[in-house]
Specification:
Elements: E1 13-17, H1 20-23, H2 45-49, H3 74-88, E2 92-96, H4 99-102, H5 113-128, E3 132-138, H6 144-148, H7 157-173, E4 179-183, H8 194-197, H9 204-228, E5 233-239, E6 243-245, H10 250-273, H11 278-286, H12 297-303, E7 308-312, E8 317-319, E9 342-343, E10 349-350, H13 352-366, E11 370-374, H14 392-410, E12 416-419, E13 442-444, E14 456-458, H15 460-470
Parallel strand pairs: 1-2, 1-12, 2-3, 3-4, 4-5, 5-7, 6-8, 7-11, 11-12
Antiparallel strand pairs: 9-10, 13-14
């Protein structure tokens, strides 16, 4: 008899995701150098300058605040936080290593042992509870010196600096860490994101040159990992926005397809398939983009593709060619307002079914295991006098998205092996530099001005996620 019970695979990796620059704090302690995140202002000015040509390269306390500098002080509180993750039942924890905590200037000849020891302590604490670390090598944390002295990723020299960094952390931790990711949301560099390519936006030529250097650097890291241990798993990581054509106008469909393949597929095509796709080569030709590609680059990329594909999913995007259609105000990727979807407090359209579509599209296209490394609802949580937070809205969001994941696995045959919701503990938002935009299962008593006790409190969603993990997803139907 066929078992029609829908469930998640045995050994499915439930967990949570963070980034060093958003929750670690101690930005100037332990021998750490400054990163691009350390000069990124908090508040609404951050998003205004993220894709600009005049992104600030200095700390300017007279005009800005810098919530990242303190984060939630995971640097000093990691044992307490990891104990809470273990109580929830995490199977994995996605974290990043700050490059500048290992090589303060990025081009240093020797690593900072104090930084290496800190991450070893964190990894050992995770392993003590049976939590598998997943480490992102570069999560919007390029050392600031590499921007000032070399101009960011458009400079070929950063490939060698990254290779040294990747080799250092892989040699140090490869016996303790199986799962790695190279560059976080790499495809945001297509539009010139300062966080991604670590340079002020200079246009498509520089952006795609910077991305090429990251593709080479990613392949080098993958090569090193597999030489150390063929069983290590190295993944790429991109942001994915399921795209719809607003109507059946063929021009709209073509516009959607063009945007979809350059944003959602371009970087993945190269890192998973190991070669530049034909549509990208024609795009370069039509837009007078000439990449400086060294003799062995394409062979390296071809010979060392990633083992799995990881992506973040927060929203979908609807494309229209009709200028009279209302724009999706607040939607991070723009587009037209989708009349069938509601939006978060920050205007991000909520589309659980779009996650199932994304999983199906990616698995059918690439045929490699998938890892959802970010997903979640940024919302304003209002605790009562005892710091109880009834975040039923977050539970509903996660339940709907996880239900679509289950359908993708059991109805569509997708090989999905991990899910790490974003900001499993409250941290500083990357897009707005705010604490008030909260994602976590754990509330941190800290406001946008850095005021608060830093005490941790379990939200209602903490117990919900704990039960979900314990049942391996079966509690979705209870």
């Amino acid at each position: 008899m066929t078992d029609n019970t829908h469930h998640f695979p045995d050994g499915f990796l439930w967990g949570g995701a963070t980034a060093a620059n958003q929750f670690e704090g101690a930005y100037d302690q332990g021998g750490k150098g400054l990163t691009i995140a350390d000069v990124s202002p908090g508040g609404k000015d951050r998003i205004k300058t993220l894709f600009s040509a005049d992104y600030p390269l200095e700390i300017d306390r007279a005009n800005y605040t810098y919530p990242n500098h303190q984060g939630i002080d995971f640097y000093h509180c990691y044992k307490e936080d990891i104990a809470l993750f273990a109580e929830m039942g995490f199977k994995t924890f996605r974290m990043s290593i700050s490059w500048a905590r290992i090589f303060p200037n990025g081009d240093d000849l020797t690593p900072n042992e104090e930084g290496l020891q800190f991450y070893e302590n964190v990894i050992d604490e995770l392993l003590k509870y049976g939590i598998e670390p997943t480490i992102t090598m570069s999560h919007y944390e390029t050392p600031l010196n590499l921007v000032k002295q070399y101009g960011g990723w458009k400079n070929r020299q950063l490939v060698a600096f990254f290779e040294t960094y990747a080799r250092t952390i892989l040699e140090r931790f490869h016996k303790k860490v199986t799962y790695w990711m190279t560059f976080n949301e790499i495809n945001t560099g297509i539009g010139g994101s300062f966080f991604s390519v670590a340079m002020r936006n200079e246009g498509p030529q520089a952006n795609f040159q910077a991305l090429h250097h990251q593709f080479v650097a990613s392949s080098l890291a993958t090569k090193i990992a597999h030489e150390l241990n063929p069983e290590l798993k190295v993944g790429c990581m991109s942001i994915y926005a399921t795209m719809y054509a607003y109507d059946s106008n063929p021009e709209t469909v073509v516009a959607m397809k063009d945007r979809n393949r350059m944003f959602n597929y371009f970087c993945n095509d190269i890192q998973v398939r190991g070669e530049y796709p034909s549509y990208a080569l024609r795009y370069f030709e039509n837009n007078d983009i000439e990449l400086a590609i060294e003799a062995d680059d394409l062979a390296l990329i071809k010979e060392h593709p990633v083992d799995y594909l990881s992506f973040s999913y927060y929203m979908s995007t609807t494309i229209s060619t009709n200028p009279e259609h209302a724009s999706a105000e607040g939607n991070f990727f723009g587009g037209t307002k989708n009349p069938y979807l509601k939006a978060s407090e920050w205007g991000w359209e909520i589309d659980p079914i779009g996650l199932r579509v994304a999983l199906g599209d990616l698995y059918e296209r690439y045929g490699v295991p998938l890892y959802i490394s970010e997903n979640g609802l940024g919302a304003i949580d209002k605790p009562d006098g005892d710091f109880n937070i009834d975040d039923d809205y977050r539970i509903a969001y996660l339940r709907q998205h996880i239900s679509e994941m289950e359908k993708a696995i059991n109805l569509d045959g997708v090989d999905l092996f991990a899910y790490t919701p974003w900001g499993c503990i409250d941290l500083v938002s990357a897009s707005t530099g705010e604490m008030s935009k909260r994602y976590g299962f754990i509330y941190v008593d800290l406001d946008d001005q850095g005021q608060g006790t830093l005490a941790r409190y379990k939200k209602k969603s903490f117990n919900w996620y704990q039960a979900l993990i314990a049942s391996n997803g079966r509690s979705l139907t209870e």
